[in-house]
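Progress report, Aim 2. The chain analyzed during this reporting quarter is listed below.
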Amino acid sequence: MSKPTLHMIAGAPQPVAPFSHAAEADGWVHLTGQMPTHPDDPEKPLPDGIEAQTVRVMENLKIVLAGLNLSLEHVVQMRVYLTEFERDYAAMNETYRGFFSEGRLPARTCVGVTALAVNALVEIDCVAKRP
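Predicted structure tokens for the chain:
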């Protein structure tokens, strides 16, 4: 395995902890979980509700992927973390599904957690593969 390359992406949301936006080795790109923070203003209040937060998280992932010349089409696996699993699971799924072409859903794990950074309702990370 080659030495990992660590990426910080201009225009992506400011990290809420000490991490890189992505780590890459041998064509595999691991994106750090994104929060529903606004990329231009980390102090802006989080969007209201699971649907709006899911959209913001997915858009943030797209920003990081684009900064690496990748897109959601290159994603092979995603992990979703929800603080209100039973309440938000169905609505998050419906919103999430809209980001992918018909029949093109990556592998995924979704888990309920007790809390997330910045009091978010959702966090999503992913693994992409370069063509």
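The mean pLDDT is 97. The domain at 5-129 is CATH 3.30.1330.40 (60s Ribosomal Protein L30; Chain: A;). These observations will guide the mutagenesis work planned for the next reporting period.
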